[in-house]
C-alpha cells in the first residue's frame, strides 16, 4: 500500500516548473484571464509566504501569496491554491491555507484576501468582504471575495481598488498620521 510522506516547504525557484504544471492541471489555460491573475501579473508573489507540499519528495500541491494594497489595507492575496487530483481530500489544501495565513500574520500582514468558494474557505477563517467594496482589475463574483481580517479595522478599510503593492514601500496616507505610513517590514512582529 502506498504510504504518504507529506512535507510542507517554503517555495523556492526550483519549484517553479512543477507549480506551473499543477496550476495548468487544476485551472487550465483560462487561469490567466481571472481577475486575481491580473493582480498577480502586476508584480511578483512573495516566495517567503508561499508554500508547497511534497509527497515522498514529489511536489503535489502549491499555494502562493502576493502582496497587495486593498483599499488602505496592506495585505496578501492568496492563490492560486491547487492540489494534484491524486492527492485531493487528504487535508493538504486546508493545511497549505493554514500555513500561509499564519505566515502572513507573523509577517505583519493586515489581511489575507482571495476569490474563492465560501464553503471551503469559511471554516478556515475567511469572511465575506462587504458586497462590491473592492474593485478588481476584472470582473469577480462579489460573493466570492473573502478575507481573513488580521488588523482590527480591516473590514472598514477594505474599500476601493485592490492591486499589487510592493510590501516594502510605505502607503501614502491622507490622514496626516505618520504612524500609519510604516512599511510592512517595519511593523512585522
Ligand atoms: C480546492 C482544492 C484546493 C482542495 O484541496 P484538497 O487538499 O483536496 O482539500 P482538503 O483535503 O483540504 O479538503 C477537502 C474538503 O473540502 C471540500 N471541498 C473541496 N473543494 C471544495 C469547494 N470548491 N467548495 C467547498 N468544499 C470543497 C471537499 O469536499 C472535502 O470535504 P470533506 O472534508 O467534508 O470531505 C483542490 O480540490 C483543488 O486543487 N482544486 C482545483 C483548483 C481549485 O479549485 N482551487 C481553489 C481555487 S478557489
TrEMBL record:
The keyword Nucleus does not apply. It comes from Rhizobium calliandrae. This is N-acetyltransferase. It comes from the Bacteria. InterPro entries: Acyl_CoA_acyltransferase, GNAT_dom. The lineage of its organism: Bacteria, Pseudomonadati, Pseudomonadota, Alphaproteobacteria, Hyphomicrobiales. Residues 6-151 form the N-acetyltransferase domain. SUPFAM superfamilies: Acyl-CoA N-acyltransferases (Nat). It holds the Pfam family Acetyltransf_1. Keywords: Acyltransferase, Transferase. The keyword Metal-binding does not apply. Its EC number is 2.3.1.-. One of its GO terms (molecular function) is acyltransferase activity.
Amino acid at each position: 500500500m502506498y504510504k504518504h510522506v507529506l512535507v510542507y516547504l517554503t517555495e523556492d525557484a526550483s519549484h517553479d516548473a512543477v507549480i506551473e504544471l499543477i496550476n495548468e492541471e487544476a485551472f487550465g489555460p483560462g487561469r490567466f484571464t481571472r481577475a486575481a491573475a491580473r493582480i498577480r501579473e502586476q508584480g511578483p508573489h512573495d516566495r517567503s509566504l508561499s508554500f508547497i507540499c511534497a509527497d515522498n519528495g514529489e511536489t503535489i500541491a502549491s499555494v502562493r501569496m502576493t502582496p497587495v494594497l486593498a483599499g488602505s489595507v496592506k495585505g496578501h492575496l492568496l492563490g492560486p491554491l491547487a492540489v494534484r487530483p491524486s492527492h485531493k481530500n487528504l487535508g493538504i489544501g486546508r493545511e497549505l491555507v493554514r500555513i500561509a495565513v499564519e505566515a502572513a500574520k507573523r509577517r505583519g500582514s493586515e489581511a489575507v484576501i482571495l476569490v474563492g468558494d465560501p464553503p471551503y474557505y469559511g471554516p478556515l477563517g475567511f469572511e465575506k468582504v462587504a458586497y462590491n467594496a473592492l474593485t478588481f482589475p476584472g470582473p469577480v463574483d462579489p460573493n466570492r471575495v473573502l478575507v481573513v481580517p488580521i488588523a482590527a479595522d480591516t473590514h472598514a478599510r477594505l474599500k476601493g481598488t485592490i492591486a499589487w503593492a510592493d510590501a516594502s514601500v510605505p502607503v501614502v496616507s491622507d490622514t496626516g498620521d505618520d504612524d500609519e505610513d510604516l512599511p510592512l517590514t517595519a511593523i512585522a512582529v
